[in-house]
Amino acid sequence: MSFKHGEPGGKHNTTIVQLKWGLWQDEKTMPAPNATTRFSDRVENYVRYRPGYPTEVVQALKKECGLGPDHLVADIASGTGIWTRTLLENGNPVFGVEPNAEMRDAGERLLRSFPKFTSIAGTAEATTLADHSVDFVTAAQAAHWFDHRRSSEEFVRILKPGGWLVLLWNERVTDSTNFLHDYEQLLLTYGTDYEAVRHERTTSAVNEFFDPAPFKELVFEMRQEFDYAGLEGRLLSSSYAPGPGHPQHAPMLRELHRMFDAHSVQNRVAFAYKTLLYFGNLS
């Protein structure tokens, strides 16, 4: 593995830097029309190179929401199970609701050792779960793909009274280093639809999931380190990165290699992240 984010032998730097109640008003955003299928050919890179989430996230949910190991969780758009695994390791029974067959298959393979994991073929708007059946609904790195109104209605339907909605994202700190500034420019230059779908813009619509209920926000810091192979895999795990056969694929990788050579220290570059955590009770 070519990255480090808090696994044994690795590291991350995580600090709570913000806590507030919020009700934001901003322009409404809609999910991309191919939101379900756009990761189908990215699964292996997604598994290997996407970051996990700070351990402090679960600790915060325990403190703020009373999360306990007996609480039943519906993890929506669970994908390959990166966040799902964290919940399972906390002892929670988890429904992993995932519409993409390739991502769902990977999650089933990687989480097969957890008896409390149940894989569900469903969507945020139609989970197939029973009314008032779960204590928590979570969505990690995914809610910007949902139809906000329809998914909110579905979450209210499946949550028990007093249940919690939890949304979280890892967001790159795009201007914290010269390397990350150049990486952002690479995505803007070569990404197929990066400006339209990047979640850094759509998280401003979080209030649409909670409105009229209030929600809380916590922000953590985290980092991920890569050698060149890991950096390329991290890039190609993104749905907006042109894949093999696309005319922009080879020029993009040449620029990526140039950037790595210019910015790497001891054959490593680092991604700095803010982990954004939003949680509240739905009406």
Topology:
Elements: E1 18-22, H1 43-49, H2 55-65, E2 73-76, H3 82-89, E3 94-97, H4 101-110, E4 117-120, E5 134-140, H5 148-158, E6 159-172, H6 178-190, H7 194-197, H8 199-202, H9 207-210, E7 215-226, H10 228-236, H11 249-263, E8 269-281
Parallel strand pairs: 2-3, 2-5, 3-4, 5-6
Antiparallel strand pairs: 1-7, 6-8, 7-8
Helix pairs in contact: 1-10, 6-11
Structure description:
It is a single chain. With 283 residues, the chain is of the alpha/beta class. It has a domain at 18-174 and 197-226 and 271-281: 3-Layer(aba) Sandwich (Rossmann fold), CATH 3.40.50. The chain has 11 helices and 8 strands. It has an 8-stranded mixed beta sheet with strand order 1-7-8-6-5-2-3-4. α3 links the parallel β2 (73-76) and β3. It is globular, with a radius of gyration of 18 Å.
Q: How would you summarize what this structure contains?
A:
This protein is 34% helix and 22% strand. It contains eleven helices and eight strands. It has helices at residues 43-49, 55-65, 82-89, 101-110, 148-158, 178-190, 194-197, 199-202, 207-210, 228-236, 249-263, and strands at 18-22, 73-76, 94-97, 117-120, 134-140, 159-172, 215-226, 269-281.
